[in-house]
Design goal:
Helices cover 43% and strands 18% of the residues. It is an alpha/beta fold. It has nine helices and seven strands.
Length: 247
């Protein structure tokens, strides 16, 4: 796993994007930038075991290098689940496929290049039972997010599950500033320099737009998920689960 040194110079020449350079260091970036990433995956696996049926089909939208699906396949082998990852970044998918083969999961997990914001997405999610949308919604333009979640809800059958993890913002300005400071402390503890932290924040400023926890729950409820709850939170990161009941 290559170390994330993308912003070691402190210079930002373009907005953040999931290009070849990011793909090469993305796994290290994920481990060092998303607090309790593996804890969230383990909790997701536990809920899938209790709420989903064996042989369910799981789609990961914005799957990047496939780490989430690889871990779920390791944690839930007895459920005989089918894993499908969608992403629009070829460099991410190339690495995801290499990792799946390396860990002997090439026949269990498949990856496809797809723009997950495309209007035909529900049709593409053939036979879906569970959708993962981890640290993906935050990169979709705010005005398009409700329509996007509506299409996910439409694609899921009764008892279908949607998992969403996001960077979040507080509606209270003083607390929000404190949360940002605490997150930067976390990144310093992971070995990022002040230059790297400042440069990464600048690169993401117009690309990653977080919602409050309340806004994320509202998106889920408005789309027709009868049950939606936040199941994990660390400062300014949160994970949500939504269940589509029978009408």
């Amino acid at each position: 796993m290559n170390n994330d040194k993308l912003y070691s110079s402190g210079k930002v020449t373009e907005d953040f994007s999931f290009n070849d350079k990011v793909a090469e260091v993305f796994d290290d970036m994920l481990d060092r930038s998303v607090p309790h990433y593996r804890t969230v995956i383990q909790a997701t696996a536990s809920m899938i075991r209790r709420l989903a049926k064996p042989e369910s089909v799981i789609y990961d939208l914005g799957c990047s290098t496939g780490s989430t699906l690889l871990e779920l396949s390791r944690l839930l082998p007895d459920m005989h689940l089918r894993f499908i990852g969608l992403d629009n970044a070829p460099a991410m998918l190339d690495k995801a496929r290499r990792k799946a083969e390396m860990f002997g999961k090439g026949t269990v997990i498949e990856f496809h290049q797809q723009d997950i914001t495309a209007a035909g997405l529900p049709t593409a999610l053939e036979g879906v039972n569970i959708i993962l949308c981890n640290y993906t919604l935050q990169f979709i333009r705010p005005m398009l997010r409700q329509e996007f979640i509506n299409r996910l809800a439409a694609a899921l059958p009764a008892d279908g599950l949607l998992f969403v993890s996001e960077k979040i913002i507080s509606k209270h300005s003083r607390l929000n500033r404190t949360f940002i400071d605490l997150y930067h402390d976390f990144k310093r503890d992971q070995g990022y320099s002040e230059l790297e932290i400042a440069a990464k924040r600048e690169a993401l400023e117009n690309v990653l737009i977080p919602f409050t926890p309340e806004e994320n729950i509202s998106l889920l409820k408005e789309s027709g998920f009868q049950e939606a709850e936040m199941f994990f939170r660390w400062i300014n990161f949160a994970s949500f689960v939504a269940l589509k009941r029978q009408s």
